[in-house]
Amino acid sequence: MSLLALDHITVRFQPKGKPEVTALDDVSLRVAHDTFAVIVGPSGCGKSTLLRLVAGLETPTSGSMTLDGQPIAGPSADRGMVFQSYTLFPWLSVRENVMFGPKLKGLAKAECEDIADDLIRAVGLSGFERSFPKELSGGMRQRVALARALANDPRILLMDEPFGALDSQTRQLMQELLLEVWQARRKTVLFITHDIDEAIILGDSVHVMTARPGRIKRSMSIDIPRPRNLDALTSTEFMQFKREILHLMHDEAVLAART
Amino acid sequence: MSTRSLFAPKVDIPRGASLALGTGSVAVLIGFWCLLTYGGFTPPDFLAAPDRVLAAGIKRIGDLSLFRHIGSSLTVILSGFLLASIPAVPLGILMGSFRAVQAAIEPITGFMRYIPVSALIPLLILWIGIGIEQKIMVIFLGTFFQQLILISDVSARVSKDLIDCAYTLGASRRQVVQRILFPACMPGVLDNLRVTMGWAWTYLVVAELVAADSGLGYMILNAMRGLFTDVILLGVFTIGVLGLITDFLFKLLRQRLLSWSADL
């Protein structure tokens, strides 16, 4: 059975003085235990809304969402999220940021520190425990954000274009780091991006979304063996996936431009 | 060194140049003052010469009367300022982030911010008399509503992602307010307290306009009757220096307590 199940999710909202918008239209999605699922789509297709629904930060107009059979209602520590914007708490040190979730759970201070230091090491930031966010680069901040989300040991990790603001070299390193951490800790991940390469490199499954109204146009499993090294990026399989997704998204862009 | 940086917008200039420009402008002002007074262009009861002001200062430091006035003014300013700030900070933060609080308070603050404090003095005298309470109330009214509006702006600008992020880490609403909203507001709060402290000083003379028997504002107004321009200028300079000191203390506080904050 899959861990996350979304069934017939529709989200409509009414901007002031404008016609009603359908952000998501009858979206159904399954994410299996310990797999890496990626949603790729153009900007404005509602993919962020979808992730915020799973996080419990928004509620659907209709449809049902369950995690491990339990209905999702409101945010919770069992669904950790990494945002695109830098969301480290600037008044807390790196260690205190990572400890934030465990501390809320009421764990003993020593235990929180152990969890934090272990994760800080896992994301390669040992030595920066006492640094403050303003002293860190963008890539380092997102690594701390990843560690902080993992500190709660969530059942699913939600990532909303977390590397979108980084330069391409840093982005590539972050993807490798994320896969490393994911393989070591066996997490279920739901990852959002508009970068097709990123989707194929990371995903066990890739779901292509279309815009206005947001729908999942096609879901595919990416059966390129891991670890996906640099050779995999230029393999014919990779290119086939890329061509297919490009065409799906291009058709959409043409449609959107016409309307 | 090229002089080009002096004429380019938003480009740093050498520290020496900055220091020279600063002292230069002050020197020109003092020079102009000397020229007017020692040059005989203005009579002493119109503008006192620098040495007269210095002498007036030394005399009042010697008999401690200047310190009595400073103490009295500081009591009024600090009491009024604290009385305003202590409720304005939490209320302003809630007002900026809770629509219900905003809806309840905004009509009042929106109205009150345009009323000059001096217009309320007659009512204040009727209601609470002419003692120190009335003077403290003037400072309070002059700062409280402005603080509310400024701090609510700070609170409204706190990133929603920061708050959403705390929710996904398991924080309750109460924890989000206590552990995210309040600390996130602190740099902006301190900056605006610093600004409104400056305004509190400007209300001082208005506060001491009526039935005061001590204070720097009183000293200035009293000196006016005898055309003692040296004492007037002494009062003005003292207020300026005290204002600078409080401003510096706020800056120091900000650096010490909120060193994590990026912008300063």
From TrEMBL, chain A:
What are the ABC transporter domain coordinates in residue numbering? 4-236
Q: Which CDD domains match?
A: ABC_NrtD_SsuB_transporters (cd03293)
Claim: Protease is one of the keywords in the record:
no
Gene3D superfamilies in the record: P-loop containing nucleotide triphosphate hydrolases
InterPro entries cross-referenced by the UniProt entry: AAA+_ATPase, ABC_transporter-like_ATP-bd, ABC_transporter-like_CS, ABC_transporter_ATP-bind, P-loop_NTPase
**Keyword annotations for this protein?**
ATP-binding, Nucleotide-binding, Transport
Question: What stretch or stretches form a coiled coil here?
Answer: none
**Tell me, what is one Gene Ontology molecular-function annotation carried by this entry?**
ATP binding
PANTHER family per the UniProt record, alphabetical: ALIPHATIC SULFONATES IMPORT ATP-BINDING PROTEIN SSUB, TAURINE IMPORT ATP-BINDING PROTEIN-RELATED
- This one is known as Sulfonate ABC transporter ATP-binding protein
Organism, scientific name: Azospirillum palustre
UniProtKB/TrEMBL annotation, chain B:
Which residue ranges does the record assign to the ABC transmembrane type-1 domain?
70-250
Q: Which InterPro entries match?
A: MetI-like (IPR000515), MetI-like_sf (IPR035906)
List the record's Gene Ontology CC terms alphabetically.
plasma membrane
Name a biological process GO annotation: transmembrane transport
Q: How does it sit in the membrane?
A: Multi-pass membrane protein
Parts of the chain that traverse the membrane? 20-41, 74-98, 110-130, 136-154, 200-221, 227-250
Q: Which UniProt keywords are given for this protein, alphabetically ordered?
A: Cell membrane, Membrane, Transmembrane, Transmembrane helix, Transport
Give compartment(s). Answer: Cell membrane
**Similarity annotation:** Belongs to the binding-protein-dependent transport system permease family.
What is this protein's name? Nitrate transport permease nrtB
Source species: Azospirillum palustre
Q: What is the lineage of its organism?
A: Bacteria, Pseudomonadati, Pseudomonadota, Alphaproteobacteria, Rhodospirillales
